[in-house]
Predict the 3D structure of the following.
Amino acid sequence: MAAGHAGKHRQSRPARISIRWERAGDSANYSVIDTGYCIPADHLARLTERFYHVSSSGSRDSGGTGLGLSIVKHVLGLHQARLDIRSTPAQGSTFTCGFGHERLLAPETHDTHAAG
């Protein structure tokens, strides 16, 4: 959902969308990074509110309901995870889902001495 959101809300200039999964100690982050539309700082705190739109016309014209990020935040909360949204002018936006150790599988270990 987040990658689709990034693609739908980019401006007319070419944008690049990257997806990253990274473990950091006993936690992990799943991030969607885009180089398109920058979300104005005064809107960041409200982005996960139901039916909230950054602009009165752009999101509704593209078929958005204003529920996507609200649903993402709610589902992450059910999994003891968090949503972090950052946006930088002329660089784009990063949407990060952070998961604590209680939601991660143990890292895989490969036994090189296993009988075959």
Remarks:
- The first helix runs from residue 2 to 8.
- The mean pLDDT is 80.
- The chain has one domain: 2-103.
- The longest strand covers residues 17-24.
